[in-house]
Design brief:
CATH architecture: 3-Layer(aba) Sandwich
Structural class: alpha/beta
Shape: globular
Helix content: 40-55%
Largest sheet: 7 strands, parallel
Strand content: 5-15%
Low-confidence stretches: none
Radius of gyration: 18 Å
CATH class: Alpha Beta
Number of helices: 8
Number of strands: 7
Number of domains: 1
Distance between the termini: 41 Å
Mean pLDDT: 94
Order of helices and strands: EHEHEHEHEHEHHHE
């Protein structure tokens, strides 16, 4: 589906999580992933794990880094056909106890970073003629938190809500130039890093996940990073050429449930 296409995936140098799922799905679809991360050691590990991938160091929240990365990649791999804005950080803290440093860091990566990376990439694909040669599409990684709430995640939810609104605005503005924008909103995606997050509110994260799967999803199965990755690939591919400005939710149906399964 992405044969001979370069796909820049930000924040994908970690050992697990959505970014790695996207990398795997891109390879599965015949594309070449370009893995971005801030940590050089993690990038080296990613290169060893995925020898066919390109890697590039940079911080998406820094304008000079985003411009440099796109320019450098254009020299190394040529056209960057697709962009996946996956880089993001979480924040589990009551809004009234959140300091400005935490707020600025979250917004700086999750929203500002999405804008800066998109800005640099658009200049690359549009060129001087301000018209993209197909294919050209981007996917922003949002979250179910953008539309559903839980205690402690108000500011994170606000950042992801901004990402989804931004995605719609991009789709409306750039569709006429041949560029599509969509977002993917994962629910709980199984990984070690997410188990660590769950420890913020329970001493038994494994039991919490079992209850989630059995009672708070329509499909009683774990959502793996590759499941999100394949959804991203669909949205980037020509199979979704008529889809733009949309958010696809990958949550096993949890946001569709009126009541928990054990209630009925």
């Amino acid at each position: 589906m992405l044969k001979n296409c370069n796909v820049l995936i930000t924040g994908a140098a970690g050992g697990s999580g959505v970014g790695i799922g996207v990398v795997k799905a891109v390879i599965e679809a015949g594309g070449r992933p370009v893995i971005n991360g801030r940590n050089q050691n993690r990038l080296a590990e990613a290169k060893e794990r995925f020898p066919l991938a390109e890697v590039i160091q940079g911080d998406v929240s820094v304008s000079a880094d985003t411009e440099r990365m796109v320019a450098e990649l254009a020299d190394r791999v040529g056209r960057i056909h697709f962009l996946v804005n996956n880089a993001g950080i979480g924040l589990h803290k009551p809004p009234h106890l959140t300091d400005e440093e935490d707020f600025d860091r979250l917004i700086g990566v999750d929203f500002r970073g999405t804008w800066l990376m998109t800005k640099a990439w658009l200049k690359h694909v549009l060129g001087e003629n301000e018209k993209a040669n197909p294919p050209a599409a981007a996917v922003n990684i949002s979250s179910v938190h953008a539309r559903k709430a839980m205690p402690g995640y108000g500011i994170y939810a606000g950042a992801k809500g901004a990402v989804e609104s931004f995605t719609r605005g991009l789709a409306v503005h750039y569709g006429r130039f041949g560029v599509r924008f969509n977002s993917v909103a994962p629910g709980y995606v199984h990984s070690e890093q997410n188990l660590d997050l769950i420890r913020n509110w329970t001493d038994d994260p494994e039991a919490w996940v079992r209850d989630l799967i059995q009672n708070h999803q329509a499909t009683p199965q774990l959502i793996e990073p590759i499941d999100v990755g394949r959804t991203v690939v669909f949205l980037l591919s020509d199979a979704a050429k008529a889809v733009t400005g949309q958010t696809l939710t990958v949550d096993g149906g949890s946001t569709a449930l009126l009541y928990p399964m054990n209630f009925v």
